[in-house]
Design brief:
The complex is a heterodimer of chains A (330) and B (347).
Chain A: H1 13-37, H2 53-60, E1 68-70, H3 76-82, H4 86-93, H5 127-141, E2 147-152, H6 159-171, E3 175-181, E4 184-185, E5 188-189, H7 190-193, H8 199-205, E6 210-214, H9 218-233, E7 239-244, H10 264-271, H11 274-284, H12 290-313
Parallel strand pairs in A: 1-2, 2-3, 3-7, 6-7
Antiparallel strand pairs in A: 4-5
Chain B: E1 7-12, H1 21-24, H2 32-49, E2 53-56, H3 63-72, E3 85-88, H4 97-109, E4 114-119, H5 121-130, E5 136-140, H6 153-164, E6 175-185, E7 190-194, E8 197-201, E9 217-222, H7 232-239, E10 248-254, E11 261-268, E12 271-283, E13 288-290, E14 296-300, E15 303-308, E16 314-325, H8 327-336
Parallel strand pairs in B: 1-2, 1-4, 2-3, 4-5
Antiparallel strand pairs in B: 6-7, 6-16, 8-9, 8-14, 9-10, 10-12, 11-12, 13-16, 14-15
Helix pairs in contact in B: 2-3, 2-6, 4-5, 6-8
Classes of the chains: A alpha/beta (330), B alpha+beta (347).
Chain lengths: 330, 347
């Protein structure tokens, strides 16, 4: 007789409100970066996560602070959900010395090892082998820490990603590969960039479970991630979690998105917005009221205003800082 | 008036066969490349039987593109075979269940003679809700299903083709009237339909949808109880193996210490578990069950579908359902009538 694992307990009201706050913070952060980028004051590139909030929030809600995540070029949501300081993130994006990477990395190099965020990553699929490192490290040290690699559907074609699945499988490592499948690798739709447009099925080839969930439903992501994390912690090995989702902005800010259907984004915002879906479900269940959620919205908006204000007021790194933080002594 | 080419609709759901049971029990992912291959093989059967056109739902994740690729390349390995013309409905899929609903509606409007469905119980439920009197050929793409059958698509295509061309008389054999469960909330404020089972589940959110935690299911209504299936229908079958088209069953569960009967049942692939039953009773066509009040979710055909609160009255009527093509019966009739037999002297 078997007993299914029980990694997904019912969420308390406080937990629900906390997870909503994470998603709202991501949304507000990204909408604001979108507007600030248009002023020309932000250096480099930014890739916005709006529309995909339920994935970062749903997965990271299942992690402890001593678990690790590796992120992607579209990493703001992961960083916020894992607990990075929003003010320091905004300062980093503005290239200021108060930034989480002292203003020298920008959007694609946001990292904070103290909260288990090993870094956004400009290399497509670059986070996947790092998560294998987490799994191996935990195994060697005898801890039950988990390593989560976020990746996109484009990254799932990279050799490095597939090699990582293999490594995690043969090491039976506590790794979770979360594929945020928004249907496009940059501007190329899945049917043009994937030989087999079936990311979850790839897990079968490496002997690990592959699951697909609606990445725009917090509760679907959370339920599956809870199980995957419980499995990883208890020595059950890796999981591939494919989250079907949609991004509300372009691949990068400035992307004209001529490759998308005319009403695609409009339809997604109307029917697949993870925040609206979360609100509908928790208010219908009587777990939270609309007023409570609006109060969180106001607080979050104020915190993002403050983050931008402080970032703009902060100094830029000096020329003397150029050669610091380049190497690390072990 | 121009005569319409004899057309069969095809719905292949790219999202079926990949839910959370792959993680929490022993299910495996049903490959979308295989779904595309099944549609291609189905078309081979349809074409051989005389169907002129296939109208397919546009589906992402490699299903439509896989079918089209195989169809275009068929001359390289099936040069002599007769295939129907392939037409895909001309719109961009949303990747949600709205695609299935829209496609079935368009197919019915286009006058298809039958619809072949590749998916699980959930996919068939959506099709059944929209298809009216158009018969379905129900093909399973996974191991969790009770309503559709796991079978070779070529033979299914042949059977559908023989029936819609009239080479096997549909008035005599091969079409079965299924049962369904008509769900109504608060006297019709919301209504829905299930083909296999309706369950009251404790979980407050639809979440990952699949029902796989035995202690969360408090009540169950089944349209048939299949002893060889996996899932809630199999649970009922261990109490009363009721054949399709006969009676339904209403089951109330209880914690093992309070249960009148304890059952060991295959609730999901790779997952045999113990469930306690407080009481159960058979249902005749037209019987209505009022579910016990409670909060949580209502699952239709094994998937949590909508939330309910303590004040919601949920009733389930054991009703008639869609028409289904009985592939075995059609092929047996074809054999008996020598429909596919070529007289050597006539060749």
């Amino acid at each position: 007789m078997s007993t299914a694992t029980a990694g997904s307990p019912e969420l308390t009201r406080d937990e629900l409100l906390r997870h909503y706050r994470v998603m709202r913070t991501i949304r507000e952060f990204e909408e604001r970066v979108h507007r600030e980028f248009a002023t020309g004051d932000i250096p480099g590139f930014v890739h916005l996560y709006a529309g995909e909030e339920a994935i970062a929030a749903g997965v990271c809600a299942c992690l402890r602070e001593d678990d690790y995540i590796t992120s992607t070029h579209r990493g703001h949501g992961h960083a916020i959900a894992k607990g990075c300081d929003v003010g320091a993130m905004m300062a980093e994006i503005f290239g200021r010395s108060t930034g989480v990477s002292k203003g020298k990395g920008g959007s694609m190099h946001i990292a904070d090892f103290g909260v288990g965020m090993l870094g956004a990553n400009g290399i497509v699929a670059g986070g996947a082998p790092l998560a294998c490192g987490v799994g191996l490290s935990a195994k060697v040290r005898g801890t039950d820490q988990v390593g989560v690699a976020f990746a996109g559907d484009g990254a799932s074609n990279q050799g490095m990603f597939l090699e990582s699945l293999n490594l995690a499988a043969i090491w039976n490592a506590g790794c979770i590969f979360v594929v945020e499948n928004n249907g496009y690798a940059e501007a190329t739709a899945s049917i043009y960039h994937q030989g087999g447009v079936d990311v979850a099925k790839r897990a079968d080839g490496f002997g690990m479970p592959g699951v697909v969930v609606d990445g725009n439903d917090f509760f679907a992501v959370h339920e599956a991630a809870s199980e995957a994390v419980a499995r990883a912690r208890s020595g059950g090995g890796p999981t591939l979690l494919e989250c079907k989702t949609v991004r509300f902005f372009g691949h990068f800010e400035g992307d004209a998105q001529t490759y998308r259907g005319e009403t695609e984004v409009e339809d997604a915002r109307a029917n697949r917005d993870p925040l609206i879906r979360f609100e509908q479900q928790v208010t219908a269940a009587g777990s939270a009221t609309e007023q409570e959620l609006r109060a969180i919205d106001d607080e979050v908006r104020a915190s993002i205003d403050e983050a931008v204000e402080q970032a703009r007021a902060a100094p830029e790194p000096l020329a003397d800082d150029l050669l610091t933080d380049v190497y690390i002594n072990y | 008036m121009l005569s319409q080419p004899l057309t069969v609709g095809v719905i292949a759901n790219p999202a079926s066969g990949r839910d959370i049971r792959r993680l929490v029990t022993g299910g495996s992912v049903f490959d979308n490349a295989e779904k595309a291959s099944m549609v291609f093989r189905l078309m081979a059967g349809l074409g051989a039987a005389g169907v002129e056109r296939v109208l397919m739902m546009p589906a992402g994740d490699g299903v439509s593109s896989g079918v089209i690729r195989r169809y275009r390349n068929r001359g390289h390995f099936l040069a002599g075979a007769r295939f129907p013309e392939l037409e895909t409905l001309d719109w961009t899929p949303t990747g949600t269940e709205r695609d299935t609903v829209r496609a079935v509606s368009a197919m019915c409007e286009a006058g298809v003679a039958a619809i072949a469905v590749l998916g699980g119980d959930g996919t068939h439920r959506l099709v059944a809700r929209e298809c009216g009197e158009v018969p379905l050929c129900a093909l399973s793409t996974g191991t969790n299903n009770a309503f559709p059958e796991m079978r070779e698509a070529t033979v299914a295509g042949l059977a559908v083709g023989l029936l819609v061309t009239g080479r096997v008389d549909p008035d005599e054999t091969g079409i079965v009237r299924e049962r369904s469960l008509a769900v109504s909330v608060d006297g019709g404020e919301r209504s829905d339909l299930a083909l296999v089972d309706v369950a009251a589940v404790a979980s407050h959110f639809v979440g990952a949808r699949a029902v796989w935690k035995p202690d969360e299911v408090s009540e169950l209504v089944v349209a048939f109880a299949s002893p060889s299936a996996v899932g809630l229908s199999a649970v009922a079958a261990q109490l009363e193996p009721i054949r399709r088209g006969e009676e339904g069953l209403h089951v109330r569960f209880a914690p093992p210490e309070e249960a009148a009967i304890l059952l060991d049942v295959p609730l999901a692939p790779g997952f045999v578990t113990r469930m306690g039953v407080r009481e159960h009773r058979r249902l005749a066509l037209g019987d209505v069950v009022e579910l016990s009040p409670g909060s949580g979710t209502i699952a239709l055909d094994g998937e949590r579908e909508f939330a309910r609160t303590i004040g919601d009255r949920v009733s389930v009527e054991f009703a008639t359902g869609p028409l289904r093509i009985d592939v075995d019966a059609v092929m047996a009739a074809a054999g008996q009538g020598r429909v596919l037999t070529l007289m050597k002297e006539l060749i």
